[in-house]
Amino acid sequence: MQNKLDKQAQLVTNHFIVYGENLALLAEIQEDGFVKVALGTKSGKVYESFEAEKSILTKQPDGYYQISFQGKKLTSLCSNPVSFHIYFEKAKIYAIKGNLENYKLKY
Q: What is the helix (H) or strand (E) element at residue 12, kind and residue range?
């Protein structure tokens, strides 16, 4: 029987507004597993330069992984609603924290 952790999964969040460079993900990643993050819309469009291949996750002492992107500042998205597209395998995702707030729909 195959373990459910052995399959690649994708998690897409609701929209947030990002207002700073502090963005982190609490995750447990097995030695042979991975987590990648892209930023885009809920409908699947990924913003240019915020593709999963350009994400950098740096482990912090508190167990969170700081999220950054090669050559791009998160604040360049401050006027756009942002959904997290989290791709992972052999990992468990628990929380997201940072300089963000829930995007409130007007209608």
A: strand 9-12
CA distances from 75 to 2, 19, 59, 78, 100 (A): 41, 6, 21, 5, 10
Measured distance CA(106)–CA(99) in Å, rounded: 21
Q: Compute the CA torsion angle 45, 43, 97, 95 (nearest 10 deg).
A: -120
H-helix segments, 1-107 = none
pTM: 0.87
pLDDT digits 0-9 by tens, 23-55 = 999 999 999 999 999 999 988 899 999 999 999
